Amino acid sequence: MYIVIVGEEGGRAGELQLALHDFGLDWTVCWLTDTGDAMTLPSDRRIDVVVSDMQVGAMAGSELLEQVRTLHPEAARILLLERSQGTDATRVLDVAHRFLRKPLDASELIEAVESVQELRDLLTNPTLVQTIGRIGSLPPPPKLYMELERLMQDPDVGAGEIAELISQDPAVVAKVLRLCNSAYFSSGRAITDMRTAVTRLGTRILQRLVLTSEAFGSGAVSNVEREAMQDRALRTSRLAGQLLSGPSGELAATAALLAEVGKLLPGVNRGGPDDAGPHYAEAGAYLLGLWGLPMPIVEAVAYHHRPGAVRMSGFWVPGAVHVACALVGGLPLDEEYLRSVFQIERVPEWRDKAEKLAAV
């Protein structure tokens, strides 16, 4: 495996080499201090992983990874963040597969790279690929959600422009207004126009509502089951978003919203003991990968039913989505996993949150 690390972390080369030796990993690591060197790598050399600082000389790390995506699309892209840069992660989800903390920790890098490889193995599983390949028509990508995401990148965009975009889809408008006037969000005054609805709900909640409307808009399920899945997805999303803070909470909320999307596909294991075919979680993750959603969301969907399989230390998005799905759906928690990440004591607190959400 060929790893390129760009930035100021070269002083940790010895620590990484020692860790690679201890883990028995035969990796070649190339340390670069400026983006010019990175871009002169031979085009015929396969690069498995690129690790970059948020800023490398005059170039932003996200810009570097964007170029890497074009020149070396096979490479896993990892961005290093200072503790104060957590909010910046949400702006570069489309170019980075993983985020790691600075200073670079050898064991965390190894876990991240191994996790990327495992996910790639999962998403290229021959049985899964064949199952998806036999489906005549896959659910289409969430076009309105992606347009909304692009629109919201502009700090000058206001509620009126967002409302105008949402109003292009009458089905989404109906769902937005229904949610906006529900007991959970209502402040006692009925809302009948999209601009006021955008202001009341907030852009992040609005995004999730649009996403669930589009993601569950079609598929191999009845209308009744689809409505139940949408409702469960929204409740799961709210809970998952409360289990983590900052950008991680936003990731968890979106991933939880899509945890069951694989159930829309025919020929998948929907979680029953006698079901055949690939599990709906892996199938859903594969679908999200085809849609081009950020890799952290794809990974969380793939592993929400078995969070212990994620090669990542600590309790992060897959764990939060697992907990939310279990508590909202009445499924068993993976207590062994929660003990391993030192979160088992929080289960009563989480159950209380889930009960309060269910009562609304």
In short:
This is HD-like signal output (HDOD) domain, no enzymatic activity. With 360 residues, the protein is an alpha/beta fold.
Question: Could you please describe the fold and organization of this structure?
Answer:
- The strands form two sheets. Strands 2-1-3-6-7 form a five-stranded parallel β-sheet. Strands 4-5 form a two-stranded antiparallel sheet.
- Helix 10 runs parallel beside helix 12.
- The longest helix has 21 residues, at about 225-245.
- The chain has three domains: about 1-125, Response regulator (Rossmann fold), CATH 3.40.50.2300; about 125-140 and about 220-360, Orthogonal Bundle (Hypothetical protein af1432); about 145-215, no CATH class.
- With about 350 residues, it is α/β, with parallel strands linked by helices.
- It is about 50% helix and about 10% strand.
How do the strands and helices of this protein lay out in sequence?
Blueprint: E1 2-6, H1 13-23, E2 28-32, H2 35-39, E3 49-53, E4 55-56, E5 59-60, H3 61-71, E6 76-81, E7 98-101, H4 106-123, H5 126-133, H6 143-152, H7 159-166, H8 170-180, H9 194-201, H10 203-215, H11 223-243, H12 246-257, H13 280-291, H14 295-303, H15 317-329, H16 335-340, H17 347-359
Parallel strand pairs: 1-2, 1-3, 3-6, 6-7
Antiparallel strand pairs: 4-5
Helix pairs in contact: 6-10, 7-9, 8-9, 8-10, 10-11, 10-12, 11-12, 11-15, 11-17, 12-14, 12-15, 13-14, 14-15, 15-17
